[in-house]
Amino acid sequence: MKLARFRSGDSRVRLGRIDGDEIVDLSGVEGIGSSLRALIPELAARRDSILSASGPRHPLAEVTLLAPIDDPQKYLGIGMNYAAHAEEARQAGIPIPTSQMWFNKQVSCINDPFGDIVRPVVSEQLDYEIELGVVIGRPARNVSADEAREYIAGYLVANDVSVRDWLAKLSPTFTLGKSFDTHGPIGPWLTTDDEIDDPLALQMTLTVNGEVRQSADTGGMIYDIYEQIAYLSRVMTLQPGDILATGTPSGIGAPTQNWLAPGDVVRAEIEGLGAIENHVVEDRVGS
């Protein structure tokens, strides 16, 4: 299934099932509200009712798609998880880690799949990072890598927008440089795990103004998504709806100082999951 949060003619937030180039309104299904995170633990039990729902249909072009998960308890990202990208970082003065290196993206950074990315007034080094987003499906604690896939609800496209001049210099933990408002666009919907044969064999492409900047497949991870879940779950209980940004390949803007600027259009697409597209806009001082 492909499940989305959306608005149509009114301002009401609804859940919907993607069916081709249309979205089927699920608000008529008993017990389904407007939070996909709240629905995730019940997806298996409600699968048949969701698939058979025959609510109003809307062309995707006529609705506003929202962040599939707008209220996760945790949004975590792993740094330098593709070898070529790790080398890019090393050349920029960041040592290549010898174990999984995790950071927080504050959940207030979450943005809609087609929402604007704001370039903050305090930075001139705004960068992009396409990533496979993994959404946790049930509480995971001390999970082994072999059983980790059983805990995945599904996948989405993530752009781990990064303010480079706030990373190593002003926020050595990465948290601040990764957490500016609007710097977590995700979507366009949640694709459930059963829809994807192998999440480690998906092509990822990011373009800026139509120019390909990043192109790789998810098989290039140093630590795959199952190892990531196992590692994190030794420390904390991963909860339904938690989002893991699983690493970006090479091609980021930092090595060439090719920063994002107002007016740029950033499109991130992952095979089988869809695409998100965001316009870069200037910050409004005092807002």
From TrEMBL:
Domain of life according to the entry: Bacteria
Assigned keywords, A-Z: Isomerase, Metal-binding
Residues that span the membrane, as ranges: none
GO MF, one example: isomerase activity
Pfam families: FAA_hydrolase (PF01557), Rv2993c-like_N (PF10370)
Fumarylacetoacetase-like C-terminal domain sequence ranges: 76-281
UniProt xrefs under Gene3D superfamilies: Fumarylacetoacetase-like, C-terminal domain
Positions of the Rv2993c-like N-terminal domain: 1-68
Family classification: Belongs to the FAH family.
Name of the featured protein: 5-carboxymethyl-2-hydroxymuconate isomerase
